[in-house]
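Quick entry, no commentary yet.
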Amino acid sequence: MEEKIKSILCEMQNIEPENITLKTNLIRDIEMSSVEVMNLCGVLEEEYAIEILDEDLITIQTVEDLINYVGQKMEEKV
């Protein structure tokens, strides 16, 4: 899942995978706008058949936060 999420992020932002780490901040480090973060969440919702709540978006700041959140949502589905 981690590699898939990184791959989606790299494709959407047109950046190289080696520029992404778990600690990469979506807004500060790769300069995603709030609209881009929402678009990313939409793609992840489709990819993993989960719902990312708007109020949870403020807690998702790094790639690691995003991976952990998606993982948690996937566990809740089971």
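second:
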Amino acid sequence: MLFGVEVIIALQFKTGFIRHTLGDFLVVILLYCAIRGLTSISVWRSAIIVLIISFLIEFLQLLNIVELLHQQNNHVFKLIFGTTFQFMDLVAYTTGIITILFIETKYQKQIHLRRYLKSKFILGFGFLLLVLCLILPNYIVAKSAEQKNFYNPEDIPKNKVGLVLGASKFTQNGRINLYYRYRVDAAVKLYKANKIDYILVSGDNSRKDYDEPSLFKEDLIKRGIPEDKIYLDYAGFRTLDSVVRAKEIFGQYNITIISQRFHCQRAIFLAQAHGINAVGFNAKHIKTPQFFNKPIREYLARSKAILDVIINKKPKYLGEKIAIR
């Protein structure tokens, strides 16, 4: 878990408290866990070894060890040894070791409280897992889309292509899906405001009796969008596929994503991770009681999006290129 958090911090935070202080606080705890898990070295000796190693690495930065060893282009070396000495890093290391010793000496010696601590550990583990898998990914995705989501056409920068993310037209009870309707409305509004020249509809067409893109196209044409201004992507099985295929298949490195705000945020995060400059035009949101103004499954989707970026997940299908000119 600690390693996973450190990876996310390294990927998503380049500066600030989380990268420079919290990351260093957690890394000494991670190193301590590694030593204790792989050796029989005692608590205090392990803690002292970790503190010496962390302080040594930090003071080596005063000597410009990266430049002395000519490793300026070695990203792994720079990640391990760092490039700038910071006094606050020493504070973070020390605080991490103090935290370790407090936990080890305060609770492990109280044998009669082991059952109590076991329940606390389970609760603590569950809480940390919740933070790692839900809250932190939600924050990272939202932060990545900061100042890149727009509600008014006059405020949004112009791009050649607007990418409409697919949705089923009808709900299970046969009624019109409001997510679908509002995305059509948003695409029409943006096109008529001359903020996009083409509309790329990306959706699921995995079955012969299910064709999201074609339904969008029919309704867009009814609303006055010329047919030759609409392109369809039938392999947008998920948001990752839609975003990456906009670049790899349709050749777009600058796009306007059209969907509800929570969906736009996740799509912008994925776009940035794949070298695409994206902004989001927020379709009207469905006003129903939801957790923190977004569907609960969106929190799980954001965790999956970060995992996909870490493992470099690819779209299910690519194929021949279709240039939008």
